[in-house]
Amino acid sequence: MITDECINCDVCEPECPNDAIYMGEAFYEIDPHKCTECVGHFDEPQCVQICPVACIPLNPEHVESRETLMQKYQRLTAIKVTTAAAASSGV
Ligand code: SF4
Ligand code: SF4
Prior knowledge:
Elements lengths: L20 E3 L4 E3 L15 H5 L15 H23 L3
Antiparallel strand pairs: 1-2
The structure holds iron/sulfur cluster (SF4) (2 copies).
């Protein structure tokens, strides 16, 4: 999650491999349904690594095991592949 200490510096959004970060009403937010804590892509959460003000703690309301995060990664990847295939076939 991103706290209200966010300074809207824009650097985390393009780093997210899952497109989970978006501009909210006042500052950036993370869609917990898309965030895998970077499991499946990187060893460390990329947004946490790059944030200059360290305002991205784990969300206590969305504690997930590595297995759950990996399953989410696989589900998101399957959706991406299906969407890309549909786009390339013109469906
Ligand atoms: S931890 Fe990774 S997947 Fe989650 S929002 Fe940050 S960059 Fe995106
Ligand atoms: S990197 Fe940190 S301060 Fe910058 S937009 Fe993202 S959450 Fe906000």
